[in-house]
Amino acid sequence: MRSYAVQRAGLAVVQLAVLSVLVFVLTSLLPGDAAEMRFTETLTPSQVAALRAELGLDQPPAERFVHWLGNVLTGDLGTSLISGGPVADIVRDSIGATLVLTLTTLAVVVPLAVALGIVMGTRENGGLDRAITSVTLALSAIPDFVIAVVLVAVFALKLGWLPATWVGGDLLASPALLILPVGVLLGRTVCLLSRQVRAGTVAALNAEYVTQARRLGVPRRQLLLRHVLPNAAVPGVQELARTGDTLLGGVLVVEAIFAIPGFATALVDGVETRDVPTVQGLTLVLAVAALLINLGADLVCNRLVPRTEALR
Amino acid sequence: MWRVSEALGRRGFLGMAGGAGLAAIAGCGADGGAAAQPKQGGRLRAVYAGGGAKEVLDPHVQSLFVDIARHKAIYEKLVELGPDLRPVGRLASTWEHDATATTWRFTLRDATFHDGAKLVADDVLYSLSRIVDPAVPERVAQSSLATLDLKRSKAIGASKVELVLTQPNAEFPALLAGIGTHIVRDGFKDPAKPVGTGAFRHVSFEAGRSLVASRYDGYWDEPARIEELHILSADSEARATAVQGGQAEYANDMTATFARTAEAGKTVRIVASKASTMQAFVMKVDRPPFDNPDVRLAFKLVADRQRLVDVVLAGRGEVGNDLFGKGYQYYPADLPQLERDVDRAKSLLAKAGLAGKEIEIFTADASAGFVEAATLFAEQVAEAGVRLKVTTGSPQTYAKDLLTKGAIGNHRSGAMPIPQYVTDRLLSHSPFNVTHWRRPVFDAAFAAARAVTSEAERSAKYGVLQKTVRDEGGILAWGLPDYLIAVSAKVQGVQAVPPNTLDQGRFDKVWLA
Questions:
Q1: Residue A109 sits in which domain range?
Q2: Across-strand partners of B43?
Q3: Which residue of chain A is at minimal alpha-carbon distance from B234?
């Protein structure tokens, strides 16, 4: 298992390097640069040119990349071209809201999806299975922003029960701000995850060892929790890692709709203002997070069902 | 409101209108609840289009409406602009100039900074030197104040300052009312610790999110009624939901679509500053086919302005007459409206050999209505026998790209004094000369007009120049959109005035009923 982890870590470094180059090249290909983005018809072209020199944007791209890389290797994410402050500050200021949002979603989605999956799996093709399947599938088929608009229109604007947006709100003072965004994110993830748990449950229930255990008279409750769930959870945990990625995509939409000042908002701002160091820094952090989540999921699966050699 | 301003413009022409009278009459433009008694206290949350990490607390580095609103709460300028874009005194109570309008003396008001220090002439001189510091290129007023000669400028006692220019300019007070010209304390270094003379004190600031400010009880111009002010950032959708959902009381720059929905309900009221910005097509006068004056005229004649206003602006605006600044000081209101004449346009285009030809219009989704306007205009131009092919560019870089790319494109302008518009866009060396209108004779005539100290005479000279631009220039100003603000029903005292003027976003004057 240790050599497996080392091998995966090595691969991760290569992935990060490729990603950094790719992000740099792609953001450099966008029309305009950070100095021009400040040109909103208030700065004259000569002021912009002076600003470009000040920001070092007149240096060759390769040189700028090497400079950035050198900083990153010493643990410095660089300086934002727009705010003039450290990129690390932007990461720090924006990561909180996104973490709260995704962790709350996961805290709700995991028990919910596991419970639904087991309920469906143990009643394969029964009425309840079909009902839950229909609802979760329907929810996952509707785009996030449609769910969001409907939820806002009904629960915030019409009924006035919940806040419509994070603008003018403070999470500590009104945790209710989380309800609608988490609701939107649930729509997508619950379906995917519960389908996997259902499939795992069905497969496990049909496995020979379960038949054998049944024959031996293992009580149903013990059978489900001890024998079925760990096996059923394997596709679930792997799906959970992918859910992390789905969530990131969903968070992008949700942050935009509810005006949540999170990671995705910072990233979009960074791209729009051609703030290359910020985009680089944020994607690097995201990539590291994604790699860690996937690595973690694989290791958890490995631990859950040690015999799954295929994972190595 | 507009009509009031126009009337004032004409009176100003005769040299009769004073700043105080203007403000009093402009008060008629205040929206509803005029009879209600102002109430004290409460918190007001205002939402503006945000700029993420671009947002700044430094009042000399600003470009976004949200920055301007925030800085206005904390800081003040020597001069501001009235509802018709005429300079009105703020921290400067009065001013006078020498015979050539080269040396100016501003008398300072008895104002106190948030830290208790009195405003003195040295604060003004320090602020100006900070603005024009060439080492910091993003201080926005640098180019407009380029003719300020600080070496020869000086304090005359504590409450008077003498500013000297390198060339005569009767419009100097308006330049001191420009973007990024706030007065800071002498020695001001750290923008993160703002100290101004404005109606609100800084409490906290987070770029891309919020400014929180509290009422400053020592404010010279009657302390604010509200206790606490939040100026927040959010895109158009979030502004709409915030003001509808009761999470904000004031939402700046709303769309015509939203205004229609909001007006159907009871929770939100729309305050519209009529026809206070400009939408135009701009033709480069040095590029074919628009280097031919007949083609420019033909395009102006073929535009169905009313339809553009009805469709693109959803009817919230007025038709334009190919000139910037309708209703503002110096606007030649006596010029007749150019009417549509497809037949004449057709014959002019045929004469220029363009019948059946294709021309490209360069547009982008850079501002609301740009692409729609270009697309609709293509249909109108087709009626005169010319095909207009719509090509779209990058929204973020469009403003800059348009300076060099394409022969015809979209242009919009917010409110600013007419001479400033000319300086920015219509002189040979103007930084934003999007029509490539470069005529040394025009430059010289404008410089001469600007130096004339008699307002009536100056106005007449500007009038002639504007007529030339209208008749021969490349600006096809088809529409003058209303500037829309949404407020929750309990907000009172919001003025319907153009953006960038004193009474817009004046949160010290509003109250919560």
A1: 94-271
A2: B228
A3: A259
The residue in chain A having the minimum alpha-carbon distance to the alpha carbon of residue B43 is A168
As to burial, measured by CB atoms within 10 angstroms (0-12 exposed, 13-18 middle, 19+ buried), residue A71 is: middle
CA distances from B283 to B279, B298, B380 (A): 13, 12, 16
Q: CA dist B423 to A79, B32, B468, Å?
A: 35, 37, 15
Mean pLDDT is lowest, of B58-72, B95-109, B155-169, B305-319, for B58-72
CB A126 within 8 A of CB A133: no
| Residue A125 CB contacts under 8 Å (≥ 6 apart), including other chains | none
Residue A84 lies in a domain: no
Interval A187-194 mean pLDDT: 82
Three-state secondary structure call for residue B45: strand
- The pLDDT of residue A67: 85
Give the model's pLDDT for residue B21. Answer: 37
Strand partners, B104: B97, B163
Residue A297 lies in a domain: no
pLDDT tens-digit series, residues A203-259: 877 877 878 887 888 887 777 777 777 777 777 777 777 777 777 777 888 888 888
Roughly how many angstroms between the first and final C-alpha of chain B, as a whole number? Answer: 24
Choice between B72 and B27, residue whose per-residue pLDDT is larger: B72
B260 vs B257, B276, B504, CA distance in Å? 5, 19, 22
- Residue A227, domain CATH: 1.10.3720.10
Predicted confidence band of residue B25 (pLDDT cuts 50, 70, 90): very low
Give A-chain residues touching B206 at CB under 8 angstroms: 93, 261
Q: What span, in angstroms and rounded, lies between the C-alpha atoms of A61 and B393?
A: 24
* B 105-134 residues with CB < 8 A to A: 134
Q: Is the ipTM of this complex over 0.85?
A: no
Exposed/middle/buried for residue B238 (C-beta within 10 Å: 0-12, 13-18, 19+) = buried
CB pair distance less than 8 Å for B63 and A266: no
Taking the Cβ of residue B54 and every Cβ of chain A, the question of whether any pair is shorter than 8 Å is answered with yes
Q: How far apart are CA A4 and CA B174, in angstroms?
A: 71
From B413's Cα to the closest Cα of chain A, the distance in A is 10
Report the residue of chain B nearest A264, measured CA to CA. Answer: B52
Lowest-confidence region among A57-66, B52-61, B340-349, B408-417: A57-66
For chain B, say whether A170 makes contact (Cβ under 8 Å): no
For A9-40, the pLDDT digits (tens) are 788 888 888 988 888 888 888 877 777 776 56
Chain B CB within 8 Å of residue A272 CB: yes
Band (pLDDT 50/70/90 cuts) for residue B64 is confident
Residues in chain B: 513
Is residue A48 in a domain? no
What count of other Cβ atoms lies within 10 Å of the Cβ of residue A270?
Answer: 28
Number of domains in chain A: 1
pLDDT at residue B247 above 50? yes
Tell whether B248 is within 8 A of chain A (Cβ).
Answer: yes
The two most distant CA atoms of chain B are separated, in Å, by 71
Inspect the interface and report whether the beta carbons of A43 and B140 lie closer than 8 Å: yes
CA separation (Å) from A128 to A116, A186, A236?
10, 20, 20
Helix (H) or strand (E) holding B240: helix B236-244
Is residue A176 in some structural domain?
yes
* pLDDT at residue A305, rounded to an integer: 66
In this prediction the pTM is: 0.83
b/e per residue B247-286 (b: at least 16 CB within 10 A): bbbbbbbbbbebbeebeeeeebbbbbbbbbbbbbbbbbbe
User: Is the Cβ pair A163, B63 closer than 8 Å?
Assistant: no
The pLDDT assigned to B263 comes to 86
What integer pLDDT is reported at residue B23 of this predicted model?
A: 38
Report the pLDDT averaged over residues B220-227. 95
pLDDT at site A312:
42
